[in-house]
Amino acid sequence: MKELLLKIGRELGRLGLVSSHSGNLSIRTKEGLLITRHKAMLASLSEEDLVEAPLFGQVEGASSELEVHQSIYLNTEAKAILHCHPPYAILLSLYLEEIKPVDAEGKHILQSVPVLEFKESIASKEVAQALPHYLKTKKVVIIRGHGSFAIGEDLEEALMYTSSLESSAKILYFALLLQAIVEKTPKGGVS
Predict the structure, then answer these.
(1) What is the spatial distance between Cα 136 and Cα 141, in angstroms, rounded to a whole number?
(2) What is the 3-state composition of the chain as percent helix, strand, coil, each rounded to the nearest 5?
(3) Are 91 and 169 in contact (CB under 8 A)?
(4) How many angstroms separate the Cα of 8 from the Cα of each of 45, 101, 103, 124, 131?
(5) By CB atoms within 10 Å of each CB, which of 56, 57, 128, 190 scores lowest?
(6) How does pLDDT run along the chain (191 residues), one tens digit per residue?
(7) φ/ψ (deg, to 5) at 91
């Protein structure tokens, strides 16, 4: 179980889905959850970076997003949670109300990803209360300007949704950019 957390953390770094000390991940356990510590470097996690926590209450050293993870576990069927900072998805979240993939894989896996906005977007009670509602029907959501939360039966499934979101966001970004260029290009082409 711990080995999978370490593996997924490395993969998040390799894929550029987190910066050096951003993001967090957790898995549901019989007693509660296993979550990364506050300011852990996900790309180089060790077992010392994992904190056992109950489903209620704070635990010293745990991720600042612990309350959000607890709320998701208590109010959804999630068995694993990834919170990442995928750059293209965050960029699009600043301008769109919803990320609607234009690529076939993104359409198939994601359909659409809601962009949610909160007064306090990082580790807030508002986020903890709202996210489970959305994650009952979606496997991944993005908080405007902050990052994504993905759930799954395991961390690999949550990673699939997160990486699909970032891949689709990158394709959508370049499609929108190309569309803007084409629309501004005179009909006779560039001279």
Answers:
(1) 11
(2) 45, 20, 35
(3) yes
(4) 9, 24, 25, 25, 22
(5) 190
(6) 788 889 999 999 999 999 888 899 999 999 999 999 999 999 998 999 999 999 999 999 999 999 999 999 999 999 999 999 999 999 999 999 999 999 999 999 999 999 999 998 888 899 999 999 999 999 999 999 999 999 999 999 999 999 999 999 999 999 999 999 988 888 766 55
(7) -55, -50
Q: Which two tokens stand for residue 31?
A: 């007693």
Measured distance CA(118)–CA(116) in Å, rounded: 7
- Say if strands 113-116 and 140-143 run parallel, antiparallel, or are unpaired: parallel
> 2-181 adopts what CATH topology?
L-fuculose-1-phosphate Aldolase (3.40.225)
Type of residue at 2: K
pTM: 0.92
